[in-house]
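Write out structure tokens for 5-methylthioadenosine/S-adenosylhomocysteine deaminase.
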Amino acid sequence: MSISRCDLLLRADIIVTQDAQRRIVEGGAVAIDGGTIIEVGPQAELDARWQAERSLDLGRKLVMPGLVNAHTHASMTVFRGVADDLPLMTWLTENIWPVEKALSKEIIHFGALLACAEMIRTGTTCFCDMYLMEAETARAVDEAGIRAVLGEGIFAFPSPAYAKTEDAWPIIEDLHARYKGHGRIRTAIMPHAVYTTTPEILKRSWELAQAHGCIWKTHLSESETETRTSLEQFGRRPLDYLESLGISGSKCVFAHCVDLTPEEMVRMAETGAHVVHCPQSNMKLTSGMARIEDLRRAGVNVCLGTDGAASNNDLNMFLEMNSAALLQKVRTMDPTALNAQAALDMATVNGAKALGWEELGCLEAGKAADLIALDLNQPNMLPLYNPVSHLAYAASGMEVCLTMVNGKILYEHGRYAAMDMDGLAREAVKVARWVKARAHKTN
């Protein structure tokens, strides 16, 4: 048997591949070369086939694909805990938007760095972000080493990034041009919602997404209040309104989708649209319980997102998996609803599919070497009968002891490769003073 060379041979007690067969390899190994996985299988077989520049023996660890957080507002980490226990529109209009008006590039950059640190620490290797001054978020992503799909939020009113909507388009084009061909950063078109835009904005944004061949993402039917607002403003429910403008298809990614009719779910499935479920944010803002099992049965690709840390209050996808699974069981009063494997799929392969980045979300030959390792010796992970069950129901995210993106280790046993956590902690104290001073003025 001939022996080939690779950059890294990683070994662990358990590998959850999330491949098409949902293979779980005990005593497994992953061969990596040039940031790409070239083989996954039993250690003995890979040891015989590959000579590695470096070997990494993890021992009593579980290796799995990095998680995909398909809906965030990363820099809203600066608002974590500043306005809690409020309904969505009160939270937005009276507490968040007034302070957001004063945001600077420096604070956006800091908030994004802090978000990247939290996601890397808890096993997320790719996230999809809609916020303000996304060039600063892109800069943070580049520095941190994580992956992201980024889109400047488009509104019908001024934002900290632009004085009028017309000025948003050059910003979006510049972001796209700057990161075209970047290995870890992609861009998308992201109008905020039907109630914060206009028909002209939505149509122009859709045309731009088609021209660039990228995803088009918006908040949709997040609550019954949003639906009522859409009916009052446009005489149509949110999805009907978008379709009347010619916006539909597999490039559409809709966040939340709490208030959908069964017929709307069928139409989403027929057009290939994707839904991002954000259970913790929906619960905290009492937006409602999305009918995820109905969406899945209709054939819609449903993935998971945390939403922003201001309405969650974390960016931890393990907690989101747990919440999604348990919430659907209560909503349907069926203990078999949204089982552990389905929850894990939503956090990995389904998210990769929604973002059109299908090199992510599973561990198999030809996929990106984006993976994480969890310590199986942590008390909450013992004993172990079913690895997938533990990932959905027992893990907290704090068992993550290694995070790798593109074959590079970003986090290992408390140490970040490219981030200064002490510096971020010091800066957080200053940012909190700034936010509190302005938040107080709005109350």
